[in-house]
Design goal:
A nine-stranded antiparallel sheet has the order 8-9-10-4-5-6-7-11-12, with helices on both faces. It has a three-stranded antiparallel sheet with strand order 1-2-3. The protein folds into two domains: 2-208 and 294-319, Roll (PH-domain like), CATH 2.30.29.30; 213-290, no CATH class. The protein is an alpha+beta fold. The longest helix is centred in the last third of the chain and has 29 residues, at 232-260. The protein is elongated, with a radius of gyration of 23 Å. The chain is built from eleven helices and twelve strands.
Length: 320
């Protein structure tokens, strides 16, 4: 147990017996290599009880440990963590409202930044990570299970959070400074922060997928850009939906032309306009999705299961 800024900070030992007092039980679940500010992470433990979500948050932090080990500075302390869905506010006005299937995220608040880790349905790190240094936060707000974090460039909406956790997180964020700035992308290999979306990492040379390529592919046919980025299940649904619409368009156009000539083509005009709108809209959404993080060409974020991430093995071999 360390003392940091007048607060108790837990540097979890590698082994600790489970059971017994609630605090000891949670310590056994936390990752061994991450410093945690225990009373902020688990405020309910002060009442002598453990909630189910306390255990979930401890497990969440353990699953994110391979990323946190590389992303956090040696003296950086985790204050809170939760999970939900990352959204840009304007996505709700478009088909982007379906993006929760592809935007599951673990949020980790430290004493220096807000860290977002893209995950799969089992909360294992997946494709990319982002950060917002605390000094770049302009304002925070929220209601029920929604949290809004405004930086100098955009307002991020994080939703699907448990209400009690949303209140706790908003209280912690309200105590930070509010200044100008924006979200930073992290290289999934060396976790160097950058304000833009480069094609390669300046530090380690890791190559990233191009937002322009993803946009053009989605413009050609909805879903192809998402498939290129790695959202294959989500992309498959888009491709099937677009294919059905094109089949409907052609089945309407061909008989109309055969019976009425070019005048019959006007019957399929509204459907063609709808298809054009879908192509353009999907391209814009794919472009925004491509810029939410750095999508590596060679692998994903490291996870506890080495076989799940080629990038994990390459980085470890490089470090060795």
């Amino acid at each position: 147990m360390l003392n940091e800024g007048g607060r108790d900070v837990l540097r979890c030992p590698a082994l600790m017996p489970s059971g017994g007092q609630p605090e000891e039980e949670l310590k056994a679940l936390l990752p061994a290599s991450i410093a945690v500010r225990f009373e902020e992470m688990f405020p309910s433990v002060r009442n002598g009880r453990i909630k189910r979500r306390d255990r979930k948050r401890a497990e969440m932090l353990r699953k994110a440990e391979p990323v946190l080990q590389r992303a956090l500075n040696p003296l950086e302390v985790v204050r809170f963590t939760t999970n939900g869905v990352r959204q840009l506010t304007w996505w709700f006005l478009t088909a982007g409202s379906m993006n929760p299937f592809a935007n599951r995220t673990t949020l980790v608040l430290t004493d220096r930044r807000v860290l977002l880790i893209h995950t799969d349905s089992k909360q294992r790190p997946r494709m990319f990570a982002n950060q917002l240094p605390l000094e770049r936060i302009r304002a925070t707000a929220g209601r029920n299970s929604y949290i809004f974090i405004r930086s100098g460039r955009e307002q991020l909406m994080f939703h699907g959070v448990k209400r009690s956790e949303a209140r706790q997180l908003r209280g912690l964020l309200d105590s930070t400074a509010t200044k100008n700035g924006g979200w930073q992308n992290l290289c999934p290999r060396c976790f160097t922060a950058t304000d833009g979306v480069p094609l390669a990492c300046e530090k380690c040379g890791e190559e990233f997928k191009s937002p322009r390529t993803a946009t053009l592919r989605s413009l050609m046919f909805p879903g192809l850009g998402d498939f290129y980025l790695g959202y294959r299940k989500y992309a498959t649904l888009e491709i099937i939906g677009a294919a059905l619409l094109w089949a409907l368009f052609l089945s309407t156009l061909v008989p109309a032309i055969m019976t009425k000539g070019l005048e019959g083509a006007l019957v399929a005009g509204p459907l063609l306009a709808l298809l054009a709108f879908i192509h353009i809209g999907d391209a814009l959404l794919t472009r925004a999705k491509a810029k939410t993080g750095l999508h590596s060409k060679d692998g994903n974020l490291p996870t506890a299961e080495k076989g799940d991430s080629p990038l994990f093995e390459r980085v470890n071999s490089a470090d060795g």
